[in-house]
């Protein structure tokens, strides 16, 4: 299993300083990604978005700077710096930068055993 990438080890960092805004873009920086877990930093420019999609895993968002607008299964949430939102697996969700904001996204994917159990 691969560990954390794109970061120095044994060094104190401020996550929001590890990614920069870019005009007219959503910028991402992967920290870890495998079949069980995905950890990614994002910086959204104002009015940029990730359109509605679903994930096989539960997604936890920690807003690091600014405020993000999240729509989960038709319900809108404004999430401010320091706040967290859990987006359940298999529910449609979208992210919109009504202002510049940065977030840390952690997605936990179910194991094959968990998927088999869910199928019955």
Summarize this structure as a short list of keywords or feature phrases.
single chain, four-stranded antiparallel sheet, 9 strands, 120 residues
Overall mean pLDDT score?
94
Distance between the termini: 28 Å
The major β-sheet equals: 5 strands, antiparallel
What is the H-and-E element order? EEEEEEEEEH
Strand content bin: over 45%
Total beta strands: 9
Q: What overall form do the CA principal axes indicate? A: globular
| Total of helices | 1
User: Whole-number radius of gyration?
Assistant: 15 Å
- The proportion of residues forming helix, as a percent range, comes to under 10%
Widest beta sheet: strand line-up = 1-2-9-4-7
So what's the oligomer here? single chain
Instruction: Point out poorly predicted stretches.
Output: none
**Helix/strand structural class:** mainly beta
Overview of this protein structure:
- The protein has one helix at 112-119, and strands at residues 26-33, 37-44, 49-53, 58-65, 67-72, 75-80, 84-87, 93-96, 101-108.
- Strand 1 (26-33) and strand 2 form a beta hairpin.
- The chain is 7% helix and 48% strand.
- The chain contains one helix and nine strands.
- With 120 residues, it is mostly beta strands.
